[in-house]
Amino acid sequence: MTLAQSRIGDVVAIEAVEGERSFRRRLLELGLVPGTLVTFLGVAPLGDPLQLTVRGCQLSIRRSEALQIRVRVTEALGAPASLVPSAPVSA
Amino acid sequence: MQASSVVVEAETRPSHVVVVGNPNVGKTTLFNRLTGQNARVGNYPGITVERKVGTLKQLDAQGMPNEVVDVPGCYSLSSRSPEEQIALWSVLGMHGFQIPDLVVCVVDAGQLTRNLYLALQLAEFRVPLVIVINMIDEVPEKAIDAAEIGEIFGVPCLPVSARTGLGVDDLRTTIAAALKAPPRPRLAPKYATELVRHVDRVAEAFPAEWRRNVEHDRALGLWALTSVEEDDELEGIPSDLRGRVLEVHREMSGTSIDEAVITARYALLDDLEPRFYGKVPPKHERLGTKRLDQVLLHPVFGFAIFIALMLLVFQSLFAWSDPAISLIETAFGALATLVTELLPPSWFRDLVTEGVIGGVGNVVVFLPQILLLFLFIGVLEDSGYMARVAYLMDRVMRVLGLHGRAFVPMLSGFACAVPAILATRTMERQRDRLLTMLVVPLMTCSARLPVYTLIIAALFPPTDLFGALPVQGLLMVGMYLFSLVVSLIAAWVLGRTVVKGKSVPLILELPPYRLPRISTTLRMMWQRSSLFLKEAGSVILVCTIVLWALLSFPKSDDVAAVAASPTTSHQLESARPHPTPIEQSYGGQLGKLLEPAIEPLGFDWRIGVGIIGAFAAREVFVSTMGLVYGIGDMGDDDAPLREQIRSSTRPDGSPAYSPLTGLSLMVFFALACQCVSTLSVVRRETRSWRWPAFLFGYMTLLAYGTSFLVYQGGTLLGF
Asked: Can you tell me the ipTM of this complex?
């Protein structure tokens, strides 16, 4: 699934960042390397962009770009983490 | 060997320290602490990126002042535009930049890993380095083990709070010591052998002046592999090198190299991370910011607060600056009167009073709005709210092909284009700044209002439409909507043609809320205002004097005598009034020369002269028209002028101006760039005459074309 499909409150782990090279590079450099945990905090009142927490930092990216970030849910909203199959994640 | 060469150089020139760091790490506050009052703001050659230089408060070992440069904030050294290249050039001393004797890397105590990524890149280059952990007051005491981080990197590392001044004295001592014995970092990630082989191949293609030592060459090779691509906008890349990088990219794709390099760096940092922290666990959640965001980014309350804040900004620019503006105008008026009384009547006296004093007044009059706007920008930026404005408005600004950050400059444009254009500095990308600058002058600024008021009052009846809607008020609202719609269309078109540029995905950082520091804001207000006075002010002054000369010469005593005699509207109405001095001036002649060109818009030579006069500032149209009609000092009441315009006739006796003329004239004023101040500010911000020339050209064409359509179309429809 992609980051754009995760629900508000979800904690997800980055699997891969796709898309254009400079965008990819910038996100990787901001620490969104595979395995990094991202919290999906919310959506701006007009529906875009999205608000995330990565490595203690709040970032905002547009939905169209979040579609290019493949993630795996580690802590679904309201569901205990143990119920979701998860691979080891570097915290 | 390295150390001795530094000492030799230090005897001949001041030491050179550069301060780098991610955006929002308090780098500028620290820079201000280190340099005190002596920072100078300039520009990097050829690029509209600001360069701040200061001198350290204490002297170096040789008794020389230390020069400190505040490098624009960056997340990493990799780059794809000349603006992003500045960080690399500054820390390495490439492309004509001075080689620094010391690099101070400022990191945010709350986001260690991500910030140390930049420090790690610097370490790979083996530049003499000191790491500063700033905002140490925002994490619990002993949460961060700065000594251990210093140990890991092999360089001094100090906890500091630039806000409170904590640790700044220690930092000064450390910088002084580091300048004597440059600390060379010794931390580097391990890259795959295949990658290192590619890096060495790239380094072989470097020009001789790029090479320094093995580590530096390798790090620069990595930079080239991750930054150079087919369509980057980098400067100074030799074609051999570009060819070599693209050759490597055919074997190992650029994206896979990026990923290999960046993940190797983060793998190292993530491994080391537990050692960064002390005994007290770091507090990762910023609860205050989280709670504030729940309100300030709320779909309802958040928007309500946002609109209220923006109304406050707008209202202050629009209305609250008024007393200060009037005061300046009165003061300069009084000064002109004083000089008039002191000097005997001569053209020189007029030059001093109307040209120079009027011109300086024309410059100074912008200060209240500039100061107020930068007060707000400073507070919004420093508190962290500006990033939220961009977050809230991005959806709207995206439609125009702009970033959410363009919102505040665009809004300010409704008060005055001059401070609004200065405010485009808050945007990172040159393309976004340029596009905003080209569109902002279309917004209905406050200087257009006196013109609209005069025209509406003179040529439109004070009646109601459908018995309830006042025609005059509707017209005013209509002009606002018109300018808004045109500027949206202009942004859309220009963003896809003239300032195309690659669309860059939005990656916006929402920094934690912090109490803004008034000293930082005051300093910014002062720097912006003094830059405006120095660089744009001179152009405005010269243009005002030229315009004054145009409308005042040639002078004949005969003409002067006519002007001096009291004129009443009764006299003017009589058959053919004596020509006013302005009619015989070069400007007046130019107006008559222009008449055939502007006739299709419904304008006569008198409006032509008014338009020429309005270049000094749009509202000058009103007083110029007053001069054209020989109405002396009108003061604040333009009723006699309204009367004149209404009763003005063509040579054949028909009314000179119809409501359609008025509409055409207002459209012209809405669209034409009738403002030397705007043009000179654009020149200052873009460092070229090309963009102001383009701005003037496109807006004049647009104004002429639209007014033509309005007048001719209206005439055809029988208005």
From this structure: 0.85
